[in-house]
Amino acid sequence: MTLDDQDRVGAIVDHQAVTDWLLDPQSPALLVHGNGRRHDPIAPTSVACALLIHVFSKKLHFPTLYWYCGLHDSGSRGNPLSMLKNLICQLLSLSCCVCSMDDQLGLDTQDFAKLMRIFVRLLRSSSLVAPVVCVLDGISFYEARHQRVETSKLVDELAGLARSDPS
């Protein structure tokens, strides 16, 4: 990483908004715009995200879901539906969700609303006591005209979950 990129990571991690977010017991959604000049699959914000993921998952033992859009920006996996399916699978892998073998989740669907309902149901049925942290890096990769609507819906839904009462 260049010195400018290292400075950008430091500026993100040390920014007052990030500090306030980390200290806020309600932990609302936090959107960080990296203001990068390049559209690289791995950017300085990706490094900042990796640091946050490490702290939350390894140091604080918070259940952490993540997706690096820049690493999945083309083909069948480079879209909001694939991201949501992957977040559902990550949530299931935490072994905290009530899901029997008889429960047909329907992850083969292309219906965004159905997948979002599955995600919310699994999240709410989980036995987690710590808040679930969800980090999406490079969401701008999914803001092309044909993906913009689903991307906005996904970000809005996740932000709404961050604001909602878990009970």
Which range best describes the helical content: under 10%, 10-25%, 25-40%, 40-55%, 55-70% or over 70%? 40-55%
Classify the beta-strand content into a percent band: 5-15%
**Annotation, overall tally of beta strands:** 2
Number of helices: 6
Distance between the termini: 43 Å
Overall mean pLDDT stands at: 79
Structural class: mainly alpha
Principal-axes shape call = globular
Main β-sheet, spatial strand arrangement: 1-2
Biggest sheet statistics: 2 strands, parallel
Q: Write the H/E string, N to C.
A: HHHEHHEH
Name the poorly predicted regions: none
Give me the Rg, rounded: 16 Å
What do these coordinates show?
- By secondary structure, the chain is mostly helical.
- Helix content is 48%, strand content 6%.
- It is built from six helices and two strands; from the N terminus they run αααβααβα.
- A two-stranded parallel sheet has the order 1-2.
- Helix 1 packs across helix 3 and helix 4 runs parallel beside helix 5.
- It is globular and about 45 Å long.
